[in-house]
Write a structure and sequence with these properties.
Number of strands: 7
Helix content: 25-40%
Strand order of the largest sheet: 3-2-1-4-5-7-6
Order of helices and strands: HHHEHEHEEHEHHEE
Distance between the termini: 43 Å
Number of domains: 1
Structural class: alpha/beta
Radius of gyration: 17 Å
Shape: globular
CATH class: Alpha Beta
Number of helices: 8
Largest sheet: 7 strands, mixed
Amino acid sequence: MTEREPNSTAGSPLAGDPLEGSDAVRDYLGERYEAVHAFGTMLADQGVLRGLIGPRELARVWERHLLNSAAVVPFLGEGAVIDVGSGAGLPGMVIAAMEPHRPVTLVEPMERRVQWLQEATDALALTNVTIVRARAEEVAGSLSAPLVTARAVAAIDKLVKWCAPLLEPGGRMVLLKGRSAADELDRAKYVLRRAGLVGEVATAPTIAGLEATTVVTLRPA
């Protein structure tokens, strides 16, 4: 079990989450805890009303969304990130909150989600975030970065078609996936071959007691 500070979560939109106030979460995020917590508070407060998360997810915003997104950061290495299909800001906003000196571009086609991303960026004073309302295939040729991320957007074969054109030479796609990631990667092998990419699946643990996140990295062959 995780320890909490007495009465530290009273009245918080995250109060129903068993990880709210957890010392383990604080230790994992270190000095960036407050920034990620502020984003999580906004997500818990407005996410259901704005159609960003489901009502059943309010009890596990930390595990399901914030820590799941944070787990990708150690796999990124150096360089700017394009987060495709940012939606609620996962993982893009979490990456930006954890690494305020890394440029992060959020690509999202839906106007209401773009509005949410802008409001959250302004509220958190994240000066490293750029928001682009578009689909990934619409910005090929105008946007590029050494890193592209995506979470719960599409299968790997579709993501390669949409996102490989956004990669700078030598760049990598770093994707958050579920338990079937290896099978999904296998089904995409012909698309990967045509794109000149190879993939690997890794587990990304966060704090003790939580299921590890699955990260798929696609890199030049």
